[in-house]
Amino acid sequence: MEEHRRRVTGRRADIEGRVLPAWKEVSALWIESTWAAGLVIDTGGESVEAANEMIVGRAS
């Protein structure tokens, strides 16, 4: 997620007058689409305990 944030915040508009979305707007869209699609856990970035908490939290 940090890499995605870095790319979004580091972008520069290549079209004059174009307003790029802020990180808050982009991350909100990503979170909405991820949760709409189901539970997604990045096992490369989460511990077993953290993943378990996500699963339990989602089920309740």
Major sheet:
none
Instruction: Specify the overall morphology.
Output: elongated
Show unreliable segments: none
Number-wise, the strands total: 0
Q: What class, by secondary structure content?
A: mainly alpha
Compute the CA-based radius of gyration: 15 Å
Q: Helical percent range?
A: 55-70%
Element string (H = helix, E = strand): HHH
Strand content: under 5%
- The N- to C-terminal Cα distance equals 25 Å
pLDDT averaged over residues: 81
Total individual domains:
1
Brief descriptors of the model:
60 residues; elongated; mainly alpha; 0% strand; 3 helices
Could you describe the 3D structure shown?
This protein has 60 residues and is mostly helical. It has one domain (2-13, 21-59). Helices cover 60% and strands 0% of the residues. The chain contains 3 helices and no strands. The chain has helices spanning 2-10, 23-37, 48-59. It is elongated, with a radius of gyration of 15 Å. The model has no long low-confidence stretch (mean pLDDT 81).
